[in-house]
What we know:
Radius of gyration: 35 Å
CATH superfamily of the largest domain: ABC transporter type 1, transmembrane domain
CATH architecture of the largest domain: Up-down Bundle
Number of domains: 2
Strand order of the largest sheet: 8-9-10-5-11-12
Shape: elongated
Number of helices: 20
Amino acid sequence: MRPSETQQKPVNSDSITSILKRIIAENGRDHVWGYAGAISCLVIVALSTAFTAWIMKSIINEAFANRRADLVGIICLSIFAAFVMRGFASYGQAVILSKIGNNIVARYQQRTYSHLMKLSLGFYNQARSAHIVAQVNQNISGVRDVMNLTVTSTVRDMLTFISLLAVMVVQDPLLSLAVFITAPPLLYALRYISKRLRAATKEAIHVNTHVVGAMQETIQGIAIVKAFTMEGELERKVNKLIGTAESRANRIARLSERTAPLTESFAGFAVASVLAYAAYRSIYNNVPPGAFFSFVTALLLAYDPARRLARLQVQMERAAVNARMLYELLDMQPHQRDLPDAKALVVTEARIEFRDVTFAYGEDNVLNGVTFVAEGGKTTALVGPSGAGKSTIITLVPRFFDPKSGDILIDGQDIAHVTKQSLREQLAYVSQQPYLFEGSIRDNIRYGRPEATDAECEEAARLAYAHDFILAQPQGYDTPVGENGVTLSGGQRQRLSIARALVRNAPILLLDEATSALDTESEAAVQKALDEAMVGRTVVVIAHRLSTVVRADKIVVMQQGRVIEEGNHETLAKRPDGLYARLNNLQRPAASDAY
């Protein structure tokens, strides 16, 4: 059975509970003691706040009404102790939750990066890199926020609110009942707002990823932007996206902040009603004010946790939207998996064989029954017009993609039944567009084999005809290359990519039109490096200029996804009606021109 692109079951996008359960399952056990410490601190915060309201009755009745001087010191000391405990507990829970939150963000960044490394090339062909980066940056914090909101709200805010409600009920049950009766309409209104906020938040995240993506693409292609005077057009495009993002952000702000007038109005009505009722009883019924002050203090202190709890669903919706979108990336994207019976590839001769291979990126076939053999230790060149399927063959050897049908074998082993890791360890790859990573020249060469010594890196550079220009750099092998090697010429970048392939010391070398984008002088230097790289290896090379493959052991001529000719340069060039002979005649007057 051939490996296939599979998808995991998506997370339930309609339930905050399902998101919360998954986040807790993935993170709760690792941080159980940290959360236990934070919860202990939050319990102290909640109880000390309730104690402040409770003791107000003793302060008013005993200190002011009854004038008990002997109790003043005890009461004041207890209040001071409550505030000190609350301060240290607040500090403790904030630090603990911050450390846990930072660890969660770091773990999901590592997990997401690792996951992205496992996705097939097909995923990256369909997704925009800028969109992926923006999506990851914006959404990872959602997992942390869901956890922190859950802990702080359920423990600190909920416990504080319940404790203060208990104080209110004990001090004045009738007033407490009135508060409970007026609360449900407020909760219903907040629930309505949170539902509308969910859709608005998801729209805003999508728009923001497009803004970040457009900016990133502009920076990466700034030379083209300036060369074609695209500044004005791109500025109008980005400004339109920014305007859309601003309107979405304003809508979210309006929805989010609607809770303020609702909660403030409710609080104002409750406090005014309580004051009127208490004043009436004190004036006409001569009721001691201690219980009333304790009730009012509890009511006022309960306002902040009640306000935070009222906004909880709104905040949870926003955090859950971010978490959902992150899980969509982790769950829904296709994986190219090794088969259960996959074994490590064992290379002896490094002989590559294609047997009736058919492949399609979409519905239309790019390859149609391709069959040929690249003999071990020899060079096989792929030639043909653009769109013939040459680059596709190069991508199938390291299993960047899997064919629809047919088999690809290395030394008789079907690569569909070997592990991708062992397969790719036997390959070195030089692309048409060399890519250099952030770091020094030495770092970029060593990416071919991380355990390579400095001497091996320098020897690879010599074989790639790169040693001399490297020594001419300001810091030699330790010179930073800039973003994608911006400080180096195209020929220099290509020779570094060849050095990276050489230091890998792999038995199979894949060359994808490695000289087609270079000027004549650079091409000559790179071709010398390639000649060194080919010695003793099985080489599959795509030729844009036929002059670069005249010494190939075998030339495979392709057209419209099929192999139509095979042979060496001498035999193919003599076929009067052959495609290779026609291409060779076209290039003969000016060997440096592309057909």
